[in-house]
Structure formats: C-alpha cells, structure tokens
Design brief:
By secondary structure, the chain is mainly beta. The protein contains two helices and 20 strands. It is rod-shaped, with a radius of gyration of 35 Å.
C-alpha cells in the first residue's frame, strides 16, 4: 500500500497482415488503485500517434495508431502504466481491446480477462531481542508476559549469544544457568527492529538455587567432591566437583539476588 508497480498491456497473436491501430479500454477500482504515467511502446512503430482519455472514475482509454502506414506486425507490449496501491485487499484490473487492420472497421479481440491484484502493506520483519550472557554453563533466556507466563524461550549459543522473537511489546527478560545467580531486566520489542540487551555475566555459586551464595553452597560442593552430583555444583562444567568450583563460588561469596540486566 502506498507503493507503485508498473503494468504492461500486450497484444498477442498478431496476424501476419498486422494491425494499423488499436483501442484499449481498462477498468479498475479507484478506491484501491491509482493509475498514472501511461506510456506508449513502439509496437506500432517508432513514432506512433496516441490519444489517451482518462484515467477518471476507474477507467481509461488508450488509442494507438501507427504513423505513415506503420503497423503492429508482431506480438509485444502496446503500452505501460503505473499503479499505486491505495487500500489493502484483493482487486481486479481488466483491459479489453478493439483493433483495426486498416479497413475502417474495429474488431474486438479476446482478452485474458480480469487480473487479480492484491494490495497489501509492506511486511516488516518480526521484532527481535538479542544479546550475550556469560557463564560457564548452558544458559536459558526467557521472555515473560505481564502475567508471568513465558512468551518465548531459547538456550543461548556456546558463547552466550542469543536472539529471541516475540510479538511487539515490553517483556520481563531473565537469564538462568544451573548453579548461578540469574539476571533480570526488561526488553521492549518493536516491529522491524533488533533490540540489543547489554552484555551480562552471571555470578557462579548459587548451587542450591535459593538466590544466595553462602556456606550452604560450599557445603554442597564438599558433599559432592570428586563426583558430578549434584550437577549444579560443577560450576566450571568440567565434569568434576572440586576446588576449582569452590574457587568460582568464593569470588561471589555472600552475593544474593538476581543481577540487574
């Protein structure tokens, strides 16, 4: 809608003796289409004589005659015009023709019938939110509706990058990884726009997932030492719970709550 397209009107199956002139009558819905820039082609010779009536009230006439005895002797484009979409929806456009072979008589020829045209708005790309979350474990990114239901969810790539698509609107966004304090914020998605969240690093050490990194998390590491149980205690994700995981916890000792995103 609001954009232009160029339409060609052709004469096909032109007989050997050719046509000396042709009259085209075209009809369309003026509420949905606007016609302009009617241009005659060279089918009737290099310097044809043209008379145009309209466009007005949904129709126009284009009359073309070859000058100095020129004729249309091959099939091809007789003229072109531009149409502008005014209103969304399906509409029809039809051109019919009368031709003369120079005997002072007009003969109606067959047309292909009405052409269906669809006028529609230019599609915009879906809204996207993207970003990067850093943690040593797989990360899940969720978008939440106002009622706390999940609008969209994705597991981030190995490097923590992600992108999520959802209908335009404002959502709560959260990042979570097993054994880490999460990150929370808000994301506004707009049609045709890629919104980028700030890079955020999650804090390792919330092994029991209670929102606090404390001695109870360290005790869990001790109870699972040199094993892989519970997996949340393997903070560096190397397949073994040991002092390296305790070291990561120690960096964030006494931190609590979700990180502001």
């Amino acid at each position: 809608m609001g954009q232009f397209a160029t339409v060609s009107v052709n004469l096909n199956n032109v007989p050997t003796e050719g046509y000396t002139s042709a009259e085209f009558t075209c009809a369309y819905d003026p509420a949905r289409l606007e016609v302009s820039n009617i241009v005659t082609a060279s089918l009737f010779g290099a310097d044809p004589v043209t008379a145009i009536s309209g466009p007005q009230n949904g129709s126009f006439i284009v009359a073309i005659a070859g000058s100095h005895g020129s004729r249309a002797t091959t099939s091809g484009t007789a003229f072109t015009f531009d149409v502008k979409g005014l209103q969304d929806g399906l509409t029809q456009f039809e051109c019919t023709a009368l031709v003369s072979n120079g005997s002072n008589t007009l003969v109606r020829i067959l047309s292909l019938g009405a052409a269906n045209l669809t006028v529609g708005g230019i599609p915009t790309s879906a809204p996207v939110v993207t970003g990067q979350v850093i943690a040593g474990k797989p990360i899940t990114i969720n978008l939440y509706n106002a009622d706390s239901s999940v609008a969209a969810s994705v597991v981030a790539n190995a490097d923590g990058t992600f992108n999520l698509t959802a209908p335009a609107g404002t959502y709560a966004i959260a990042a979570a990884a097993d054994g880490f304090l999460g990150a929370q914020g808000f994301a506004t998605l707009t049609d045709g726009v890629v919104s980028t969240m700030p890079i955020v690093s999650l804090a390792a050490g919330d092994v029991d997932n209670n929102g606090v990194i404390d001695q109870f998390d360290a005790m869990t590491i001790g109870m699972g030492y040199n094993t892989i149980i519970p997996p949340a205690a393997d903070l560096n994700n190397d397949g073994t719970i040991n002092v390296l995981d305790l070291e990561l916890l120690a960096r964030n000792y006494r931190k609590f709550g979700a990180i502001a995103w």
